[in-house]
Design a protein that fits this description.
5 helices, Arc Repressor Mutant, subunit A, alpha+beta, 2 domains, four-stranded antiparallel beta sheet
Amino acid sequence: MCFVDRVDQKILAELQADGRLTLTELADRVGLSVSPCHRRVRELERTGVIRGYRAVVDPAAVGLSFEALLFVTMRQEDRETLLSFEAAVAEIPNVLQAQRLFGDPDYLLRIVTADLGAYQRLEDDVLSTLPGVQRLNSTLVMKNIVTERPLPS
């Protein structure tokens, strides 16, 4: 685990707000010169505190306006089945998030598709056939209230 001090926390807050900042802009915002700021950013990247940079895309703008949360209950929970299920889920592009849970259900998947018909086909043809699945229970997302929130400092 990496020790993150107040300056690192400021760097992380600024990069979470705008990952396209130049090193000069970032250094200015956190009160450092460019070289020490660059060293800190490289160290945060090296230690895995910063896992990457990406664009945040509006799903509706690219035709993926239907969102569902899918609760998965497993028939079997042996190691091989769980690893096979998780590997298969990781290969499905429509799955934006997948979390293993304590208790019942066993997993929560956040899924986007173009519409209800596309979701139904994905559930019937792909999700229901995943290794070890006993039951799928979907709930549809009416509205997203908080998304892509930066981590608190």
